[in-house]
Design a protein that fits this description.
Oligomer: single chain
Distance between the termini: 31 Å
Radius of gyration: 21 Å
Number of strands: 0
Strand content: under 5%
Number of helices: 16
Largest sheet: none
């Protein structure tokens, strides 16, 4: 029993540690830079570049497998992430806050991506197959907990301190110092509790030449797969509306009503997007996974395409109605996030489907690179487009881009039984 508790402890906390820096880089930075007075164009451009480490992650993941143990990389990256969180906090009150925080966010993003590689690999080495199956739900749950803490509780905490002090840089510094302290505690805890599997660090492909040869072979075979053009277009454009929407929706919720926004406080934003929205996202993903397991990906594809696109209409409504009732905003965000969670299931299952065959693990890693790129590229131009056309027309353009999602989905071909649980 104690062994199961010990295993469950490090599985839970390591996956919690995966989520916090990702939320800090992708969400907290967005809100922080908006609070610090940057324009939407600047905010979306700078923060979208932070996706890059996840885009190029497959290039250095083989080296993490060879250089040192995965346990070593987990501990080192948690220490570095703690230091970069403190670096953001330290530079915020300075005159070079923009350059300083961007530098530390870049280091945090690369460290977080490397930490992801190590944790995912260590999970396979540190647990037997039975425990891997039992704890898969624990991994997902605690990653979602980190999202609620990061996007919900921490944003609300910033809002509370802002209301009390009126000092933006000071309030955000306190939050990042708090996260830094949390990561130091995680580092200490994992240094004490993480097991030392005999297989960790053992890899026959020990030379850089072997690694590069296998990497090139992986890329070549990836682009020789059947339906490669349709598959890559699906990976890049299926989430295009969400790629445009994801950053602007947050900025819209907190922007001044005179600029066309809803004018929510950070406390309200933490409740709406970081709590209600995350619950909707998780619920949609769970239901999507259940239905895909019953009916298969092919039968669920078009309902999921509709689900990931049509609920974006709620932002058109919000932009025109500008409701003052927070309950209405909560319902709208829940609907959109539930739809995204449900529709995103098809995307993740297609990545698995496309990766089947030889080199499936490496091919899946390449698929996730396209997944990150699909959010990075639209996000870079979203702010500039919104500032030219305004929030109302921007959300209408997002709805028009939903046609691209329908188009790329129409070209993919999927086996009828894929994803469906086989009858015994």
């Amino acid at each position: 029993m104690m062994e199961w508790i010990r295993s469950g402890s490090w599985v839970a906390t390591s996956n919690f540690a995966e989520g916090i820096p990702y939320v800090a880089v992708m969400t907290l930075s967005l809100i922080m830079y908006k609070n610090m007075g940057l324009s939407n164009t600047e905010v979306t451009l700078y923060t979208s570049w932070l996706y890059l480490p996840w885009v190029i992650k497959p290039l250095w993941s083989p080296f993490v497998d060879v250089l040192k143990t995965k346990r070593f990389w987990i501990l080192l990256m948690e220490l570095v992430i703690g230091a970069t969180l403190a670096g953001v906090a330290f530079t915020l009150p300075t005159s070079f806050w923009l350059q300083g925080t961007l530098c530390f966010f870049w280091l945090m993003a690369f460290s977080s991506a490397t930490h992801d590689i190590a944790v995912d690999g260590f999970y396979m080495l540190g647990l037997d197959q039975q425990k891997q199956s039992v704890f898969v739900g624990v991994r997902s749950f605690f990653y979602r907990v980190s999202m609620i803490l990061g996007q919900g509780a921490l944003v609300m905490l910033v809002g509370k301190w802002l209301e009390e002090t009126g000092k933006v840089a000071y309030s955000w510094s306190l939050v990042f110092y708090l996260m830094s302290a949390l990561f130091i505690c995680l580092f200490i805890f994992h240094a004490l509790i993480l097991p030392k599997p005999d297989e960790d660090g053992k890899n026959e492909k020990s030379s850089a030449k072997d690694i590069w040869r296998e990497l090139i072979d992986t890329v070549v075979t990836f682009f020789k797969k059947p339906q490669v053009i349709a598959g890559i277009c699906f990976m890049l454009f299926y989430r295009m509306p969400e790629g445009l929407l994801v950053k602007i929706s947050t900025l819209f919720l907190i922007d001044n009503p005179s600029c066309g926004g809803l004018g929510l406080t950070e406390v309200q934003l933490g409740l709406v997007q970081g709590t209600v929205g995350v619950v909707g996202l998780v619920a949609g993903g769970i239901i999507g996974g259940i239905l895909a397991g019953i009916y298969g990906l092919k039968r669920c594809l078009w309902p999921m395409v509709c689900s990931i696109t049509l609920p974006d209409l709620v932002y058109v409504y919000l932009a025109y109605a500008l409701p003052a009732n927070l309950a209405v905003v909560n319902v709208c965000v829940f609907i959109e996030q539930f739809g995204y969670g449900f529709g995103f299931t098809a995307y993740m299952l297609y990545l698995i489907y496309y990766s089947q065959g030889e080199h499936k693990t490496s091919h899946y890693a390449l698929c996730t690179a396209f997944m990150a790129l699909s959010m990075m590229l639209p996000g870079m131009v979203a702010g500039a487009l919104q500032e030219v056309v305004g929030y109302r027309l921007f959300f209408i353009i997002v709805m028009l881009c939903c046609l691209i999602t329908f188009l790329v989905a129409s070209f993919v071909r999927i086996d009828a039984d894929f994803g469906r649980k086989k009858k015994e």
